[in-house]
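Components:
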Amino acid sequence: MTGKITVMDPRGYPPKVEGKRLANRPESLDGKVLYLIDCLFDNADVFMEQLRLWFAENMPKVETRMIKPRESWVDDPEMRAKVVAGGDVAIIGVGL
Amino acid sequence: MGFALELEKAGIPTIPVSTHAFARLAKATTLAAGMPTIRNAFVPQPVVGLSPGELRAYIEGIDPVAKKPFMEVVLDGLTGPLTDEDYKGATFERTTPRFLEPDTEDNLRQLFIQEGWTDFLPIILPTEARVEAMLKGTSHAGDKFVNRMAPTSFREKWDFDVEKVAINAVMAGARPEYLPVILALCSSGFSARSSSTTSWATISLVNGPIRNEINMNSGIGALGPYNHANATIGRAYCLLSMNAQGGSEPGNTYMGSVGSNWNYTACFAENEERSPWAPFHIDHGHKAEESTAAIFFGGWYTQSGFGPRETWQEKFIRCLTAADHFSSPFIVMDPLVARDFEKLGFDKQSLIEWCAENAKMKAKHYWDDQWTTTLIKPHAVAGVEPFASRLAADPEEMISIFRPEDIEIVVAGGETQGAFKMISGRLVAGPRGAPKKPGGQLLSIDAWR
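Structure:
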């Protein structure tokens, strides 16, 4: 087959992507509230507890607070609102 | 990842921690969200099953992606000054043209393979003439919006219209008269190519007059490769899913560790004529003269048996409790089996209730499961029944693992053997906004004629 033919594109229509900037960073975590968000994957709670212990031992001036969303894979605006209202920085983990 | 993006937008510096197997996916997800410089940290895979000490070693060890100490990556990510790139984010528009650049058939076939637009089996190239012929299978215009689809809940959804469904139907080798069935399945917006690590698949069921109008197979080999309509309808739904949602590429838009054969094609019809019971769609609130499609989301396992013989109850319990209890089964019965159960005094609902009542395991075994722990336990902790009672049970207590509404029964097969199969698959909801029941969980094929 040497003749050229035209075929149609099988892909869907992707959404336009709007750029979003990162949050401003503090210079130091001393005296800051760090939320440790357990994303509820199996064993994530154990990992986040070890992370909490690491901060307690190595950076005691950081106040850590553990928090969990209502369920896995689903947004939890109430939990996010708590983090925004009471926290300065966050770590979420751990995925698979 | 979604939480991290939202928290950053709200002004909270956030580090998402994932295992290194998800590094490529994390990058693609943050780019598509317009925040490509989000500061991820990675630990080795796996996390599941490791002890506190082993996880502590991850924290005190090296981030396998950044090749730096894990905590250095975390602390730099939380406190490191923003760069120009961080401030900018990424605004961009991606387009997919209606037509590809003209080329030879051989080169176009190669292009479709290179781009990941096929399942690596031969396709029919979708020329405009072939797509136009396919569109004659529906009264709807090619530019009619059908739905949106994504490989997983945290990825961006892509739109698709009737023409895109027709293009993928041509590629699958389907005929125009099958198009309403394919459109019905695709209109669910439910992907047949989920990117889940657990290798989900969809298995589709067709009921009503259209089964015979397009000569679908509900007899011998109903679930096998023995019918043009069954084979190509299921394949068209799979191809549309991967292409309409922006791909099904291992390591990026597909993460199923083992994979599933059901992802090639999986569609069959119910043998309504030989069943002693009402057809599946009538059970779900439709009329006999309506044609419907149902999608079962599963494909994890198949338990098989014959009967019902004298010890069928023990056999059923063995099959039900061998099933992964996170993915409930739908039971496909040859008409011979269904009629024998009818002789024993069962109808579909009473047999479903028997299954739910008798499928039990120790609570400690029920909860010792990654997905039950990850996805069901939060509901149990929140007090949602019956999960809360299952969580409160003594570890040695035998607890029910399925609710009646978790199990479905379908009759299919050619009566060459009294066989049944319990196949992983929960009935998924119909189009968004549809009433739950009656009829709300099946997809109307007639609406797409």
